[in-house]
Amino acid sequence: MAAPMMTIIKKFTYRGAPEEWSNSYHLNDHPADRAGWVTDVGNMAFREQPLYTADCVVDRALVYNDASNPATFVFDAATEGFDFAGALDGSTGHIFAGDQAATVGWETGILGGSGKMIWLRKYFHNGTEHDTVPDELSAVYAAALAAFGASLLGDALPSGFFYADKNGRRPDGPVHVDPWATTRTLKRRGKRPH
């Protein structure tokens, strides 16, 4: 049995077309019922809100009592009341190109087969980079990512459960924010002009 999981799907416009991107979060246990899941997903969407601009909106979520099985529930964000637009102030730097992303990670305290530390990572689109140093995250954005990382490491969801790895183990930390933007392939990347 795999750990419980929620996937929060956001939407924004990229190259003139609608685009989606998502983050999935495993938990160390799952809420008892649908209402508990709605509350936890809404809380996680609220925590993500400072990590992207108002051009990006939470669209829907899928939740799994056991991530190795089909979704337990699918929630429409507008219907459930967590269709939050991003709260990141785009004037804090240059807004990322659509396929640029920032990375925040948590050390798990577990070594992989090669002897290297295993990290949990999340990627966020629609952030901001420094005004004069290309690809460097803006100071405001890096601080927002660090606060988000600390929140997931130490603060329980309303159900009392925590962010975890795919086996339900909580990461030990520390939290690391990569100071440079990277790229992530989007699901329905717009076509480049010929």
Describe what this molecule looks like in 3D.
This protein is an alpha+beta fold and 194 residues long. It has one domain (5-183). The chain is 18% helix and 33% strand. It has 3 helices and 11 strands. The chain has a 5-stranded antiparallel β-sheet with strand order 4-3-1-2-9. Strands 6, 7, 10 and 11 form a 4-stranded antiparallel β-sheet that branches. A two-stranded antiparallel ribbon has the order 5-8. A hairpin with a 5-residue loop joins strand 6 (100-111) and strand 7 (117-124). The model has no long low-confidence stretch (mean pLDDT 93).
Computed Rg = 17 Å
Strand segment tally: 11
Summed up, the helix count is 3
What does the largest sheet look like? Answer: 5 strands, antiparallel
Task: Give the amount of beta strand, in percent.
Answer: 25-35%
Structural class: alpha+beta
Taking all residues together, what is the mean pLDDT? 93
- Helix coverage percent of residues? 10-25%
Q: Poorly predicted ranges (pLDDT <50, ≥5 residues)? A: none
What quaternary form is this? single chain
The backbone outline, from C-alpha atoms, is: globular
Number of domains: 1
Strand order of the largest sheet: 4-3-1-2-9
The succession of helices and strands, N to C, reads: EEHEEHEEEEHEEE
Spatial gap, N to C terminus: 47 Å
